Task: structure prediction
Amino acid sequence: MSLTSGFYNSIGGDRTYNATQISSLFEGVITDGVFMSIGNAFIVSPSSGMNISIGTGRAWFNKTWTNSDSAIILAIDPSEIVLNRIDTVVLEVNTTDEVRANTIKIIKGSASSSPVPPTLIESEYINQYPFADIYISSGVTSIVQGNITNRVGTSDCP
Result:
């Protein structure tokens, strides 16, 4: 174990700090999860047709922050003709050098007579946290609130 300290002004480039060092200062003060008292806590609701709306909010996962000060509208892929599926709305934290960003996206589930939510990525560089599951019945043309199961505030997305 080593002793570190900071922050001090750089003189001639002798002091540099990276995002991990700065974020590490919040360990023990901020825990991973969605801030329930800020905005709409990323709650997912129907918009129009096959669109959903993700509410405003702020989150902290994997020493990174995500903030949205306006609703985000995402389109759900059309329903299947015969089988049902469950799609999951996720916050994806991607720390790869090529991306280095957090995004909100939909992970499409597999069509089945007994659908289950898709398997989410949990790896060293990419992690997905579920905001909501959306049950897509065969032949539907719009999303209704009764088919959305919000997962913010659960153990999967604290």
Q: What stands out?
A: The longest strand covers residues 126-136.
